[in-house]
C-alpha cells in the first residue's frame, strides 16, 4: 500500500473485521485463483496518493477473468481488450472531448496515466475469485474502502474533489458516507455497463463537468487531462 494511504488507514488494520478479512483472503488464495494478483490489490493507493486525489471513480467488483483486474476500477492491462464498460467510458470521453480518439493499440485499456494524474479508480471490493463475480463482496473490503473514501472526503483542503457515482451501488456507497455536497461535487448517472449505459451514462457529460468544477476550485492547473489516453495524443507525443 502506498505510504500516504497506509498512514491514513493504519488503524483499520488492527480491527477485527480486517483481521478476519485477511484470514479469508489467505484461505481463498490457497484454494482458488484470486484477482487481481496480490501485488496489485493496492495499486490504486500507490498510483494515486491521498493528497493528489481530485476525482474519485467508484467501481464495484474487480474484473474476474484472466488478465483483466490490476487494482484500478474499470482498467485492464494489455493485451486485454477493453471490456464493455470501459468502451462506453471511452465513448463518453469522446463526446465530452471530441479530439479524444479511443486507444486501439498499446496500453489500450490501462487507466494508469489518469490514476497518476489524480483520478482515484477505487472498487468497493478489492479482490474476487476467478470467474465468480462478487465472490468477495461483504467480506470486509467495503469497510476498508469506505474508510478510504472518508479520508478523501474529510481532507483538510477546502477545495474538495469530484465523486463520480455510476450505478446504484456506487450511489448508495456514497450516500452512506454522507458526502458534503457543499464542499464536493457528486456526479450521478447510470453505470457504463452495456446493460445500462444507454439509460443515462452515455450523455452524462461527467468528464467535462468535472473539469469545469475543478477549474473553478483549483484553476486550470487542477483540471484532469482526460485526453492523456487518446490515440492521436500519444502519436503526437511520440
From TrEMBL:
A Pfam match: UDG
Active site: 61
Location of the protein in the cell: Mitochondrion; Nucleus
Keyword Isomerase: no
Residue ranges of domain Uracil-DNA glycosylase-like in the record: 46-214
One Gene Ontology cellular component: mitochondrion
SMART domains in UniProt: UDG (SM00986), UreE_C (SM00987)
Leader sequence residues: none
Major subcellular location class: mitochondrion
Reactions this protein catalyses: Hydrolyzes single-stranded DNA or mismatched double-stranded DNA and polynucleotides, releasing free uracil
Gene3D superfamilies: Uracil-DNA glycosylase-like domain (3.40.470.10)
Keywords: DNA damage, DNA repair, Hydrolase, Mitochondrion, Nucleus
InterPro entries to which the protein is assigned, alphabetical: UDG_fam1, Ura-DNA_Glyclase_AS, Uracil-DNA_glycosylase-like, Uracil-DNA_glycosylase-like_sf
Enzyme Commission numbers on file: 3.2.2.27
Function recorded in the entry: Excises uracil residues from the DNA which can arise as a result of misincorporation of dUMP residues by DNA polymerase or due to deamination of cytosine.
PANTHER family: URACIL-DNA GLYCOSYLASE
Family stated for the protein in its record: Belongs to the uracil-DNA glycosylase (UDG) superfamily. UNG family.
Protein name: Uracil-DNA glycosylase
Organism: Mycena alexandri
The organism's taxonomic lineage, starting at the top: Eukaryota, Fungi, Dikarya, Basidiomycota, Agaricomycotina
